[in-house]
């Protein structure tokens, strides 16, 4: 089924990008549970900080590789949506991801630096580097599709209850 494109003003585009930024921190249960913080969110890319917690570890003081992989996915998708043209839809899904672990992720926080490197009609690509204490520990590429409209875009985002 093809969804007819809707013309959006520049202001509406900015409002959607801002809404997704808040959603990344407060509206996605997994992100909130991990306590991620978005420290940069613009068309050139995003920066997302993941503080260390024992519940995210593989070994003492080392982030679990799966958590680093999830951070890459979150940041890569964020980099795409932060500069997205919402006349092309708003329902985002990751279709593939590759991750290379370069060093143990040992430190007080992991920081993902992501940028969209190719925008297509529906398929978009992002590159992500993850650093811990200023040292690169992982690198990844995330491929997402965006098509159709995500229900609830623009609705108020209430903080999720802590579990």
From TrEMBL:
It is an enzyme of class 3 (hydrolase). Gene3D superfamilies: Hotdog Thioesterase. This is PaaI family thioesterase. It comes from Streptomyces doebereineriae. The keyword Thylakoid does not apply. GO terms for molecular function: hydrolase activity. The keyword Protein transport does not apply. Belongs to the thioesterase PaaI family. Residues 62-134 form the Thioesterase domain. PANTHER family: ACYL-COENZYME A THIOESTERASE 13 (PTHR21660:SF1), THIOESTERASE SUPERFAMILY MEMBER-RELATED (PTHR21660). Keywords: Hydrolase. It comes from the Bacteria. It holds the Pfam family 4HBT. SUPFAM superfamilies: Thioesterase/thiol ester dehydrase-isomerase.
């Amino acid at each position: 089924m093809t969804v007819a494109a809707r013309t959006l003003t520049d202001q509406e585009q900015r409002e959607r990008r801002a809404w997704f930024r808040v959603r990344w921190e407060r509206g996605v249960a997994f992100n909130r549970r991990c306590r991620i913080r978005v420290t940069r969110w613009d068309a050139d890319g995003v920066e997302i900080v993941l503080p260390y917690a024992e519940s995210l570890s593989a070994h003492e003081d080392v982030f679990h590789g799966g958590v680093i992989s999830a951070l890459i996915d979150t940041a890569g998708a964020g980099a795409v949506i932060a500069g997205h043209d919402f006349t092309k839809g708003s329902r985002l899904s990751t279709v593939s991801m590759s991750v290379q672990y370069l060093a143990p992720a040992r430190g007080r926080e992991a920081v993902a630096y992501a940028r969209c490197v190719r925008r297509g009609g529906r398929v978009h690509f992002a590159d992500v580097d993850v650093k811990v204490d200023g040292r690169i520990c992982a690198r990844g590429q995330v491929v997402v599709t965006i098509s159709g409209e995500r229900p609830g875009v623009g609705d108020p985002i209430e903080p999720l209850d802590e579990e």
